[in-house]
Design brief:
The protein is 65% helix and 5% strand. By secondary structure, it is mostly helical. It has 2 domains: 49 residues, no CATH class; 139 residues. The N and C termini lie far apart (156 Å).
Length: 209
Protein backbone atom coordinates (compact mmCIF):
# COMPACT_ATOMS: atom_id res chain seq x y z
CA UNK A 1 0.00 0.00 0.00
CA UNK A 2 1.13 3.48 -0.77
CA UNK A 3 1.36 6.04 2.02
CA UNK A 4 0.82 9.71 1.23
CA UNK A 5 2.12 12.61 3.36
CA UNK A 6 0.08 15.79 3.76
CA UNK A 7 1.44 19.33 3.73
CA UNK A 8 1.50 19.27 7.55
CA UNK A 9 3.58 16.10 7.60
CA UNK A 10 0.81 13.67 8.53
CA UNK A 11 0.91 10.21 6.96
CA UNK A 12 -2.28 9.05 5.22
CA UNK A 13 -3.01 5.53 3.96
CA UNK A 14 -5.50 6.16 1.17
CA UNK A 15 -6.27 2.49 0.57
CA UNK A 16 -6.96 1.82 4.24
CA UNK A 17 -9.08 4.95 4.44
CA UNK A 18 -11.12 3.85 1.40
CA UNK A 19 -11.51 0.33 2.84
CA UNK A 20 -12.79 1.68 6.16
CA UNK A 21 -15.43 3.88 4.42
CA UNK A 22 -16.37 1.68 1.45
CA UNK A 23 -19.97 1.25 2.65
CA UNK A 24 -20.56 5.01 2.92
CA UNK A 25 -22.97 6.49 0.31
CA UNK A 26 -21.05 8.23 -2.42
CA UNK A 27 -21.65 11.89 -3.07
CA UNK A 28 -24.03 12.41 -6.00
CA UNK A 29 -27.28 10.94 -7.28
CA UNK A 30 -26.03 7.58 -8.59
CA UNK A 31 -27.24 5.53 -5.54
CA UNK A 32 -23.92 3.77 -4.98
CA UNK A 33 -21.48 3.54 -2.08
CA UNK A 34 -17.74 4.18 -2.15
CA UNK A 35 -17.07 0.56 -3.13
CA UNK A 36 -19.40 0.81 -6.15
CA UNK A 37 -22.27 -1.32 -4.83
CA UNK A 38 -25.76 -0.25 -5.88
CA UNK A 39 -27.73 0.66 -2.74
CA UNK A 40 -31.28 1.63 -1.88
CA UNK A 41 -32.53 4.64 0.04
CA UNK A 42 -31.49 3.10 3.38
CA UNK A 43 -27.93 2.32 2.33
CA UNK A 44 -28.61 -1.40 1.93
CA UNK A 45 -26.67 -3.09 -0.87
CA UNK A 46 -29.02 -4.10 -3.72
CA UNK A 47 -26.49 -5.14 -6.35
CA UNK A 48 -22.88 -5.74 -5.31
CA UNK A 49 -20.22 -4.19 -7.41
CA UNK A 50 -18.86 -7.64 -8.25
CA UNK A 51 -22.20 -8.62 -9.92
CA UNK A 52 -22.61 -5.50 -11.99
CA UNK A 53 -22.12 -5.76 -15.76
CA UNK A 54 -18.65 -4.85 -16.78
CA UNK A 55 -18.66 -2.57 -19.78
CA UNK A 56 -16.33 -3.74 -22.46
CA UNK A 57 -13.55 -1.30 -23.24
CA UNK A 58 -14.10 0.84 -26.29
CA UNK A 59 -11.85 -0.30 -29.07
CA UNK A 60 -13.16 2.07 -31.73
CA UNK A 61 -12.99 5.84 -31.80
CA UNK A 62 -16.50 6.27 -33.27
CA UNK A 63 -18.44 7.71 -30.31
CA UNK A 64 -18.02 4.56 -28.17
CA UNK A 65 -19.89 2.19 -30.55
CA UNK A 66 -18.69 -1.36 -30.99
CA UNK A 67 -18.30 -3.05 -34.36
CA UNK A 68 -21.54 -4.95 -33.75
CA UNK A 69 -23.40 -1.69 -33.04
CA UNK A 70 -22.03 -0.07 -36.18
CA UNK A 71 -22.92 -3.12 -38.27
CA UNK A 72 -26.46 -3.18 -36.86
CA UNK A 73 -26.96 0.54 -37.53
CA UNK A 74 -25.55 0.13 -41.06
CA UNK A 75 -27.99 -2.71 -41.77
CA UNK A 76 -30.89 -0.63 -40.43
CA UNK A 77 -29.95 2.33 -42.60
CA UNK A 78 -29.59 0.08 -45.62
CA UNK A 79 -33.03 -1.40 -44.99
CA UNK A 80 -34.46 2.14 -44.97
CA UNK A 81 -32.42 3.49 -47.88
CA UNK A 82 -32.54 0.63 -50.39
CA UNK A 83 -36.34 0.71 -50.87
CA UNK A 84 -36.10 4.44 -51.57
CA UNK A 85 -33.31 3.83 -54.09
CA UNK A 86 -35.38 1.12 -55.80
CA UNK A 87 -38.38 3.45 -55.91
CA UNK A 88 -36.27 6.23 -57.44
CA UNK A 89 -34.87 3.81 -60.03
CA UNK A 90 -38.39 2.76 -60.97
CA UNK A 91 -39.49 6.39 -61.32
CA UNK A 92 -36.44 7.16 -63.46
CA UNK A 93 -37.17 4.17 -65.71
CA UNK A 94 -40.78 5.28 -66.09
CA UNK A 95 -39.68 8.81 -66.97
CA UNK A 96 -37.15 7.41 -69.43
CA UNK A 97 -39.78 5.23 -71.11
CA UNK A 98 -42.19 8.17 -71.27
CA UNK A 99 -39.47 10.36 -72.81
CA UNK A 100 -38.62 7.68 -75.37
CA UNK A 101 -42.31 7.35 -76.25
CA UNK A 102 -42.59 11.12 -76.72
CA UNK A 103 -39.50 11.18 -78.96
CA UNK A 104 -40.81 8.25 -81.00
CA UNK A 105 -44.15 10.01 -81.47
CA UNK A 106 -42.40 13.25 -82.47
CA UNK A 107 -40.28 11.36 -85.01
CA UNK A 108 -43.38 9.64 -86.38
CA UNK A 109 -45.22 12.95 -86.81
CA UNK A 110 -42.16 14.52 -88.45
CA UNK A 111 -41.84 11.55 -90.82
CA UNK A 112 -45.54 11.78 -91.74
CA UNK A 113 -45.25 15.50 -92.44
CA UNK A 114 -42.14 14.93 -94.53
CA UNK A 115 -43.92 12.22 -96.51
CA UNK A 116 -46.95 14.47 -97.06
CA UNK A 117 -44.69 17.31 -98.23
CA UNK A 118 -42.91 14.93 -100.60
CA UNK A 119 -46.21 13.70 -102.06
CA UNK A 120 -47.46 17.28 -102.46
CA UNK A 121 -44.23 18.25 -104.19
CA UNK A 122 -44.51 15.25 -106.49
CA UNK A 123 -48.14 16.03 -107.22
CA UNK A 124 -47.28 19.66 -107.93
CA UNK A 125 -44.44 18.52 -110.14
CA UNK A 126 -46.74 16.15 -111.97
CA UNK A 127 -49.29 18.92 -112.54
CA UNK A 128 -46.55 21.30 -113.69
CA UNK A 129 -45.11 18.68 -116.00
CA UNK A 130 -48.57 17.97 -117.37
CA UNK A 131 -49.21 21.66 -117.97
CA UNK A 132 -45.85 22.07 -119.61
CA UNK A 133 -46.56 19.07 -121.80
CA UNK A 134 -49.95 20.45 -122.79
CA UNK A 135 -48.43 23.84 -123.53
CA UNK A 136 -45.78 22.19 -125.65
CA UNK A 137 -48.42 20.17 -127.50
CA UNK A 138 -50.54 23.27 -127.98
CA UNK A 139 -47.55 25.24 -129.24
CA UNK A 140 -46.52 22.40 -131.52
CA UNK A 141 -50.04 22.05 -132.89
CA UNK A 142 -50.31 25.80 -133.58
CA UNK A 143 -46.90 25.82 -135.22
CA UNK A 144 -47.77 22.84 -137.44
CA UNK A 145 -50.98 24.55 -138.60
CA UNK A 146 -49.12 27.76 -139.37
CA UNK A 147 -46.40 25.89 -141.22
CA UNK A 148 -48.88 23.87 -143.31
CA UNK A 149 -50.80 26.99 -144.29
CA UNK A 150 -47.56 28.85 -145.06
CA UNK A 151 -46.35 25.95 -147.26
CA UNK A 152 -49.68 25.81 -149.03
CA UNK A 153 -49.62 29.55 -149.62
CA UNK A 154 -46.05 29.42 -150.92
CA UNK A 155 -46.92 26.62 -153.34
CA UNK A 156 -49.99 28.49 -154.63
CA UNK A 157 -48.98 31.08 -157.26
CA UNK A 158 -50.81 34.35 -157.21
CA UNK A 159 -52.74 34.77 -160.50
CA UNK A 160 -55.72 36.61 -161.73
CA UNK A 161 -57.75 33.42 -161.60
CA UNK A 162 -56.96 32.35 -158.00
CA UNK A 163 -56.31 35.62 -156.26
CA UNK A 164 -59.46 35.23 -154.15
CA UNK A 165 -58.36 31.79 -153.02
CA UNK A 166 -54.84 33.06 -152.34
CA UNK A 167 -56.24 36.01 -150.32
CA UNK A 168 -58.39 33.61 -148.26
CA UNK A 169 -55.37 31.43 -147.50
CA UNK A 170 -53.45 34.50 -146.42
CA UNK A 171 -56.25 35.58 -144.06
CA UNK A 172 -56.44 32.11 -142.51
CA UNK A 173 -52.66 32.02 -142.14
CA UNK A 174 -52.62 35.37 -140.35
CA UNK A 175 -55.35 34.10 -138.01
CA UNK A 176 -53.30 31.01 -137.13
CA UNK A 177 -50.23 33.18 -136.59
CA UNK A 178 -52.28 35.33 -134.19
CA UNK A 179 -53.37 32.15 -132.35
CA UNK A 180 -49.72 31.07 -132.19
CA UNK A 181 -48.85 34.43 -130.64
CA UNK A 182 -51.51 33.94 -127.92
CA UNK A 183 -50.09 30.50 -127.12
CA UNK A 184 -46.59 31.93 -126.81
CA UNK A 185 -47.85 34.78 -124.60
CA UNK A 186 -49.55 32.27 -122.26
CA UNK A 187 -46.37 30.23 -122.04
CA UNK A 188 -44.31 33.34 -121.30
CA UNK A 189 -46.78 34.39 -118.60
CA UNK A 190 -46.72 31.01 -116.82
CA UNK A 191 -42.99 30.39 -117.24
CA UNK A 192 -40.97 33.46 -116.37
CA UNK A 193 -37.67 31.63 -116.80
CA UNK A 194 -38.34 30.98 -120.52
CA UNK A 195 -37.31 33.80 -122.86
CA UNK A 196 -40.11 33.94 -125.45
CA UNK A 197 -39.25 37.41 -126.70
CA UNK A 198 -37.40 36.37 -129.88
CA UNK A 199 -40.30 34.14 -130.97
CA UNK A 200 -42.90 36.80 -130.23
CA UNK A 201 -40.85 39.38 -132.16
CA UNK A 202 -40.73 37.02 -135.16
CA UNK A 203 -44.49 36.51 -134.99
CA UNK A 204 -45.06 40.29 -134.85
CA UNK A 205 -42.93 40.69 -137.96
CA UNK A 206 -45.10 38.10 -139.76
CA UNK A 207 -48.28 39.84 -138.68
CA UNK A 208 -47.01 43.21 -139.89
CA UNK A 209 -45.65 41.84 -143.16
Amino acid sequence: MRIYKTAQGKRVDIAALASQNETVRAVGNMKVNARGDTIDGFGKVVVPATQQEVVAPVTDSKAGYTEVDLQRVSEQEKSKLYPQIDSLKEEINLLKKDREAQLAEAHRIAAEKEEEARKEAEAEMDVRSLLEKKEQEKLASAYVEVKELADTLNMTPYTVFNHEHWKLLNIVLMGKVAELKLVVEDIAKDNKEIDCWPLMKAIDLILTY
